[in-house]
Amino acid sequence: MPLVDLTAPAGVTTEITDYQAGLRYTSADKVRFKYGQAEKIGGWVKRNATNNNPMQGVPRNIFPHRDTDGRKMILFGTSTHVYTEYANVMYDVTPYRTDPVNLTNPFATGGSGTNTVTVTDASNTIARTSPASRIVITTVNGGASSVTVNGITISAGEYLATYVTNTTYTLTAVTTGATPGNISGTSSGAGPGGGAVVLRYLVSNGPEDGLTGYGFGTGLWGSSSWGTARTTGTGVVLSPRVWTMDAWGEDVVASIGGGEDTIYYFDISAFVTAKDTTPSALDYRGTTLAYYVTAVGGDASAIPTKVGVVLVSTPDRHIVVFGSNPEGGTTYDRMTVRWCSQESLSEWNTAITNTAGSVRLGTGTNIESASKARGQMVLWTDVDMYGMQFTGPPFTFSFQQLGEASGTISKNSPSMIEGASYWMGVDNFYVFDGAVKTLKCPVLNHVFNSFNQTQREKVFSAEIIEFNEIWWFYPSEGQTEVDKYVIYNYIDNTWSIGSLARTAWHDAGIYENPTAADLNGYSYKQEFGNNDESGAMTASIETGFFTGDQAGNSIYFVDKIIPDTTFVGTGTKQLSFTLKSKLYPSTATTAKSSTVLDTTGKVNMRARGRSFQAGYSSNTLNMGWRLGTWRMQANQDGLR
């Protein structure tokens, strides 16, 4: 009996029927393609820093960094916090968004027997967030660490500040972290107190999820009656909190984006000094760039107060913001690009003696993303793509429109690899390698026909250079969080699909393995071992229905499978093989399965049909695999 090849070509296709696909892969999970063959992806374990102490908020930015002495660390930006992982310990370095605020007798207690403490601050800018944003009370009662007001003792430390009015908020002590607050006792009567109090507001919490706003200015004019609240129709997608970070020498500049706030600054040497001085109670947080510049004796008056994405142009060293309040203005402009003078943190206003400047882009309504590419920076509006290249005086930077109708779907969608830019658009995948091109994607409808557009800002790309891959993680239809991925191998031009819940990713480089994070605040060492954390990882891949002859005229009888698989790892080397058969596309399927070991020479398996489907899966600890050239013994047959 002749042998029939069961080896499918690399790549998954979902755009055609199983019968059209034939001997091509049509579904996969936790499987990539390497050397032209299907292979189980690498496993993952939790990083030690978050194993027993997960981050608060949802992490959507990971920034590995190294200081000038070679010390490694990772900054994580979540919806509520900023953390630094250093020496396997996680530190809360969420930045202050205000200078120290001096108040007199700001604490008010409630009626007798209550323990509510209300703060009055005429310049209060606490946002109505859930969970509540935070403040840090530095000192009370003229420099003391605690004060008693009407029977309630309030200690210096960190608190949740729940909005009450434009001038008041209530306090809830944060009992964890380096500087926990504390409120004890009950009120003996209402009244103010506290003496001279110094406090600082931390960066306001951001939303975990995207949502659609239907307020004034959305939709078409006259689409409904005046004064009627909208609940459906065309709205504005409001984005979840997504930080951007970049290195300024050994320090880090950052932004929460969206024009909500200014630039933040993390002085890494100050962080390391504070960590070494008080490791159990780290006394360091980031600050606004303006506060840092002022503290070192500079003039911070020109620093933008509302910015979008922030990057450092290299090697010329200009801090650039994509989206900013214009020079001399206070209103955020989504299409304005501004840059500081070379090697400066404070010179943002244009002058004949510096290289600061700004440009307003001509097309689009919002700068969605920006990334550093080879020899230039690349930025995406909601519709177009631009290049920004350093040219030196007098204009400093030149701008060129690189592509039309090719905007990115999210801030973290683009990836830069080997001089090319890859990104996910609103309905397609693109590459720029001198010209914008649409990537031919055989799983396009699988992705975009089951996609939650409201949560599209959560889409992010993940580079795995070791395997020549770009992964795009996205939330599928009906899901508020990322649960799916699509893989593109940019060398072999192959695609794969699957499910994995991650919220952020950064490739190996400073650290040996890629780093990822999930919704629950855990960080992971990816491509490590073969397991799903500490359990077995389920991986599978399946072909379409292929026929024994080209036209599918004949019925075939199969009686033998000859496997060929490379196994790795210390676990039991086994793979589950399933062969399905049917006579016609719409008739019932018959399935036969067998466990294949590394010592299996052949599998005696009988099946009869006009078409067949091959499936491979595993769920074994400490074991990985790559398919080779599988064959089956088959001969023409007839119906009995």
Write structural notes for this entry.
The structure is a single chain. The chain has about 650 residues and is mostly beta strands. The chain is about 5% helix and about 45% strand. It contains 5 helices and 55 strands. A hairpin with a 4-residue loop joins strand 39 and strand 40. The longest helix is centred in the middle third of the chain and has 10 residues, at about 270-275. The radius of gyration is 29 Å and the shape is elongated.
Which short descriptors sum up this protein?
640 residues, mainly beta, 6-stranded antiparallel beta sheet, single chain, elongated, 8-stranded antiparallel beta sheet
Q: What's this, in brief?
A:
This protein is mostly beta strands and 640 residues long. 5% of the residues lie in helices and 43% in strands.
Q: Helix- and strand-based class?
A: mainly beta
Tell me the fraction of residues in β-strands, as a range.
Answer: 35-45%
Which oligomerization state do the chains in this entry correspond to?
single chain
- Going across the major beta sheet, what is the strand order? 10-20-13-16-17-12-11-19
Count of alpha and pi helical runs: 5
Q: In total, how many beta strands?
A: 55
- Would you identify the regions where 5 or more consecutive residues have pLDDT less than 50? 216-223
Helix residue percentage = under 10%
Largest sheet: 8 strands, antiparallel
- How much is the average pLDDT? 92
Distance between the termini: 19 Å
- So what's the overall shape? elongated
Rg from alpha-carbon coordinates: 29 Å
